[in-house]
Amino acid sequence: MAIATLKPTTPVKKTIISPIAIIGMLFFIFGFVTWMNSVLIPYLKIACELNNVESYLVASCFYISFLVMGIPSAAVLEKFGFKNGMAVGLLVVAVGALIFIPAALTRTYGLFLTGLFIQGTGITILQTASNPYITILGPPEGAARRISIMGICNKCAGAIAPIALGVVALKNIDAIKIKINSLTGAAKAAELDALATRVILPYIIIVVVLVILAVLIYFSSLPEIDTEHEDETVALANTNKTSIVQFPHLMLGVVALFLYVGAEVIAGDTIISYGASQHIALSTAKFFTTCTLISMIAGYVVGVICIPTYFTQQKALVASAILGAVLTVLALLTTGYTSVFCIALLGLANSLMWPALWPLALAGLGRFTKIGSSLLIMGIAGGAVIPLLYGGIIDRHFTAQFAYVILIPIYLFILYYSTLGYKVGKSAA
């Protein structure tokens, strides 16, 4: 399953440990930034007095940037290369985090959303560079294993982030929520203003860390790679290919990734609010996203150990889709902590989807790898659309539990891609 040939354009050390460690740091950073959204949703819902759909705009504004900026991010990489493009992406994320300061001081929801969109833009650049980089950096059959290692870095950060921000932003939140509901006028506004400023210090720290890491990346020994070079087999198969749309297995992969990211965001970002809807205190529910991320980490560990030694990345995707559908049905049929636990376990089902989808979708693209990667990154916009649909179902007087029915067709499509879709068009190549 040829993807592209690693062709360094800068001197490379004999070991790839250093590049993998650097990319691992990047996955940790954008995992940390991304999964703070799970706390921002209930936090801003209270601080900015939002309904369900409005609160899920946190996820939508963040993830829609992947759709809007997916193709421009490829242009950034063309101009700056993979390494310097990563440094640029980190600086863009830092700008978005910096906007949270005036947003908090003025308690302006629009500014929060602007900051989230800019953060998402920076992470789009990082994702566009780092995912194909780690896919290409070694044998194709082990790509899912390498991406699983990156996933562990990403989800460890994701497990830490909700707790780190939650300790600050959601401290004594149940009592504060009751207090706010009892106040009116200026007193209520003052209490909400004080709540909004809680995020200032955490985001100042994030800005400093991002800038430092951008400088380290810029001066690092991370090698550049040439995705324009194709081995003989890929070059022969792509002789008559003039457009990325001539790779239907990639196009279906983009759809699958769009749906998968939506499912992953729902499992991670809605579980706190869902726990509250099941009459579990927010002081307890704030840890539920971490439970989802821990189950994802467990899945990534399985991927590192078992792929490709015991099963292929394609078989892992089949099993993940089936498990996701089964857990969703169980979450719909149970209540309380049992139902919440099923949603948390969706992290396990989702964990190997990203590592498996990338190599399956990029297989055989050769010189089309960069644009293919950009389209896959645009598929991350599923995290903007699908959680919003979930919130819309709730606001139409359905329960938060019933709204999870949206996940069933998602997992069924991923099952189709994992069994048939990834092969479409390849026989004609």
From TrEMBL:
Which BP terms does GO give this entry?
D-glucose transmembrane transport
GO molecular function annotations of the record: D-glucose transmembrane transporter activity; galactose transmembrane transporter activity
Note the topology in the membrane. Answer: Multi-pass membrane protein
Pfam families tied to this protein: MFS_1
Q: InterPro entries of this UniProt entry?
A: Glc/Gal_transptr_bac, MFS, MFS_dom, MFS_trans_sf, MFS_TsgA-like
Location of the Major facilitator superfamily (MFS) profile domain: 19-426
Q: Which UniProt keywords apply?
A: Cell membrane, Membrane, Transmembrane, Transmembrane helix
Record's keyword annotation contains Secreted: no
| Presence of the UniProt keyword Transmembrane in the record | yes
Q: Where are the transmembrane segments?
A: 16-36, 56-77, 84-103, 200-219, 250-275, 287-310, 316-333, 340-365, 371-390, 402-419
Gene3D superfamilies reported for this sequence = MFS general substrate transporter like domains
Which superkingdom, per the lineage?
A: Bacteria
GO CC terms:
plasma membrane
What subcellular compartments does it reside in?
Cell inner membrane
Instruction: Say which family it is in.
Output: Belongs to the major facilitator superfamily. FHS transporter (TC 2.A.1.7) family.
NCBIfam families for the chain = gluP
Role, per record: Intake of glucose and galactose.
| Name of the featured protein | Glucose/galactose transporter
Q: Which species is listed as the source?
A: Mucilaginibacter pineti
